[in-house]
Amino acid sequence: MAASRIVKTGAALALAAAILGAPFWWSALRGMKQKAPSPEKPVGEKECVLPAAEMRANHMTLLFQWRDDAVRKGDRTPVAIGGKKYEKSLTGSCLKCHNKKEDFCDRCHDTLASAPACFDCHIITSERGPWK
Amino acid sequence: MEMTRLDFLKKAWRTGLVLFGGASFKVISGSALLAADGNTAGKRMAMAIDVRACMKDSSCAKCIDACHKGHNVPAIPDAKQAVIWIWKDTIDRAMPGVLNEYSGGELHGAKTPILCNQCGNPPCVRVCPTGATWKREDGIVMMDQHRCIGCRYCMAACPYGSRSFNWSDPRKHLDRKSITRDYPTRTKGTVEKCEFCAERVDRGLEPLCAAACAEKAISFGDLNAAGSAVRKALAGRIALRRKPELGTDPSVYYLL
Fold first, then answer.
1. What is the pLDDT of residues B93-116, one digit of tens each?
2. Cβ of A68 under 8 Å from any chain B Cβ?
């Protein structure tokens, strides 16, 4: 009697684990992996304000610094990097080269389920249709 | 001796009074709150509006159009939800008591542009809990949309009604085709107002309203620089400010 109860409980637990863990073992069995995002680089531009690896990791910090300089300190002097001058501006600098938000910004942000509020106010230069 | 509940409360009250009383009374009665920080050392950006030049064309709204177009201020039909940075109203409504029912004359019923006064002692800044609105070193009272949480304390504090709240997404009322692309819109749940075109002042330009005026009625510049346009406009003229008796120290002057 006691033994059959143990067996029943064990079977129920195993079944529950199998169902609840389905997303994990199903993707493991089928060899499914999260695809790395592939943001499209701007054509004809070779240099960003910082090396690519640094931008990838820290672009948000840089944007916050620019924002604080421009908005809070009123310091809008352009940043000179490698003989080129960049305005401290998301739309005035970043989006000038990376002119397709959906092919650049969104690719990584979507993959990581990150939803920065930048574009609630800042205007995407490339998009012309009705607001989304 | 056994301490009663009442004794304990009395002692606690006295101890608290000794420990913290001095500090709190100092804060409340401190003259620092009332002393207007007039930016006498550095720059103090200000505007002088020549009412007599402005009233030559009562139907003109070039300053308003230039400002609202340049800053993506939405035209919302519902007056209760309207967002306005600069508008026109009669002198008597802008500065009650300056005229009376017997004064008559050309000033009677004449309209003048009204905008944020960029106070030297701004009440909105004092109440903002997040530092989203603050006074820059050159006297411009700025809004940082990144920090605004939409509590609207500033709107309650402003005695001039210079601030607007975004009750809904302002983009619903903005045509994307004709928008000013290098200036952001705002978003639902934030407060906005005239910022003396700080983004232009930083680049050495005058505000859009001043640049747009065909009559050159709006002079802009540094009050602390003797040769500035605003000082030249003020020299020798009778200049009024809105509600100066409140101690807000407005930076917008109306020349009559």
1. 999 988 888 887 888 889 999 999
2. no
